[in-house]
Amino acid sequence: MRKDVATLCLKFFLRIFEIAPWAVKLFSFLQDSQIPLEKNPKLKGHAVSVFIVTCEEAAQLRTTRKVIVRETTLKKICTKHVVYGVLDELF
After folding, report:
1. Which cofactors does the annotated protein need, by name (predicted)?
2. Lowest-confidence range among 15-19, 30-34, 58-62?
3. How many CB atoms are located within 10 Å of the residue 7 CB?
4. Model confidence at 30, in pLDDT bands (50, 70, 90)?
5. Number of helices (H) and strands (E), helices first, in the chain?
6. 41 and 7 in contact (C-beta within 8 Å)?
7. pLDDT tens digits, residue range 38-58?
8. Among 10, 27, 34, 35, which is disulfide-ready with 40 (CB 3.0 to 4.6 Å)?
9. 88, 82 in Cβ contact below 8 A?
10. How far is CA 13 from CA 26, 35, 64, in A?
């Protein structure tokens, strides 16, 4: 899986957009882009970042049975998602 992580992460987001095509509009860096989603380097970078954070949290959960996210990090992520219009039910 490690050698194909970028491809797998991208496939995850492409699947989200397949299920909910309107979700593309939530990503400012995809708006007005002429690059197909599957070739968009910004989408791939975002997908990998999300995957890395998720893996780190999963590793914490596995070893400590809890996830500790720094409050500043959590506030930053939440604020961005609220500004972009992401609702709780979308998660």
Report:
1. heme b
2. 58-62
3. 13
4. very high
5. 3, 0
6. no
7. 999 999 999 998 888 888 888
8. 35
9. no
10. 12, 15, 29
Which structural domain, as residue segments, surrounds residue 62? 2-90
Among candidate residues 74, 71, 23, 83, the one with its CA nearest the CA of residue 53: 74
The distance from CA 60 to its chain's CA centroid, rounded to whole angstroms, is: 19
State the CATH number of the domain containing residue 43.
1.10.490.10
- The number of distinct structural domains making up the chain is 1
User: How far is 25 from 31, CA to CA, in rounded Å?
Assistant: 6
d(CA 2, CA 25): 29
- Per the structure block, which two tokens stand in for 17? 């957009």
For residues 12 and 46, the answer to whether their CB atoms sit within 8 Å is no
Determine the distance from the C-alpha atom of residue 66 to the mean position of all C-alpha atoms in its chain, rounded to a whole number.
21
